[in-house]
Amino acid sequence: MKYSCPLCKSILTYSNYEFARCVQCDAYVRNPMTYLNHSDEHDRYKLHKNTLDNEPYLNFLTPLSLLIRKHVPLRSIGLDFGCGPVFAMEKLLKDTVSLNHYDAFFHPNDESLHQKYDFIILSEVIEHFHYPQKELQRLRGLLKSQGLLFIQTHRHDDIPSIKHWYYAKDPTHVFLCSLKTCQVIADMFDLKIIETTNRCVVLQAN
Ligand SMILES: [Zn+2]
């Protein structure tokens, strides 16, 4: 069965495994026939224990918060897109910047998508995008000139085979990036990569 890559539109061919690797952008894309429906996807997210007193969860997000503090000037305004049920990054960035929030499942607050931002956070979000090209296009339109896009996701750069990889086993993970995928995103949306860490990529709008 043939599909096109939801980022770069190259042809994807699925055999008997639920992911296909895009030859152009290097993303692993889940077969759309196996996507969860909206309600099952929501149920799955409700299982995550993402609360403001969950120390391991806050510790997990701390490296990204430090990267944001490093790159974003005080009093900037940002958007935490796909923030989940609670505003954990806001807690970690307290007294430095202000954040608006959007989450298609927990905070479908469309108003926050009608202004421009100094920075946008996609923390463990891009791997859930069914339509990454469309979502990234929309977010790019919300970034001010020189604005920053922080993408945190577990990249498959050093994963020899994703078949037994925990990240590919989560049925809500449908779009798995490598560093090459991030470079394709930069090229497609007039951004440049200014820093990479093991789990984060910082892109700046031209
Ligand atoms: Zn692609």
> What is the CATH superfamily label of the domain at 37-153 and 179-205?
Vaccinia Virus protein VP39
Q: What small molecules are bound in this structure?
A: zinc ion
> How widely separated are the two ends?
38 Å
CATH class call of the domain at 37-153 and 179-205 = Alpha Beta
Q: State the CATH architecture of the domain at 37-153 and 179-205.
A: 3-Layer(aba) Sandwich
3D structure, described in words:
26% of the residues lie in helices and 26% in strands. The protein is globular, with a radius of gyration of 17 Å. The strands form three sheets. A six-stranded mixed sheet has the order 6-5-7-8-11-10, with helices on both faces. A three-stranded antiparallel sheet has the order 3-4-9, with no helix packed on it. It starts with a strand and ends with a strand. It has a domain of 144 residues: Rossmann fold. It contains six helices and eleven strands. The chain binds zinc ion. The site of zinc ion (ZN) has 8 residues, from loops.
